[in-house]
Amino acid sequence: MEFTQAEVKNKKRRKLLSFKLLGILFIILILYMIYWMYFKETPFLTSESPNKVNQVEIDEYGNSLWNGPHKVNVYFKDQSRTIVDKEQIKVANTMRQNGQNQYELNWQNDKQIKITMRYEHKTEVIRYDFSTQEIQRSSALEQNF
Fold first, then answer.
1. What angle do CA 48, 56, 84 make, to 5 degrees?
2. Which residues of the chain, if any, have pLDDT below 50?
3. Closest to 84 measured CA to CA, from 109, 63, 44, 53
4. Contact 144, 120 (CB under 8 A)
5. Cβ-proximal residues to 116 (8 Å cutoff; 6+ apart), any chain
6. Which residues contact 120 (CB under 8 A, 6 or more apart)?
7. CB 94 within 8 A of CB 121
């Protein structure tokens, strides 16, 4: 049983088309993995001021295959839920997953908040004043196991 020249060309075309399709799917998968690991932002924690005037939202930024994101974005929003300010914090965990129990959000009043983030290797404290839009940030290296 011999194949005609048209059948051989047709088989080669199908084979080439399937390789191209697999290549495109592989590139799409790689691009999604890059987006997921470095750029995807996932809502993590939200807190409103006592009279619901202002809001703070913490989002995880990027992912890791082993222990969660390497960064979090802290958004300070006004009463119309418009972003007034933003701060990006590096998550200082090596072996521990990032969890909501590591964050403490304390509102002094509707205009001032203190955010304490206790990571595995350091503690970050952010104080924000909505009336002056001033951020005060401090950190201390320690072992928080």
1. 120
2. none
3. 53
4. yes
5. 103, 104, 106, 123, 124, 125
6. 92, 93, 94, 95, 96, 143, 144, 145
7. yes
pLDDT given at position 75 = 97
Count of beta carbons in the 10 Å neighbourhood of residue 82: 7
User: What are the tokens at 62?
Assistant: 């990027």
Which pLDDT score is estimated for 86? Answer: 96
pLDDT recorded at residue 12:
82
Q: Is residue 118 packed enough to be buried (19+ CB in 10 Å), middle (13-18) or exposed (0-12)?
A: middle
In this structure, are residues 116 and 104 in contact, taking their beta carbons and an 8 Å threshold?
yes
Tell me the C-alpha distance between 56 and 105, whole Å.
Answer: 9
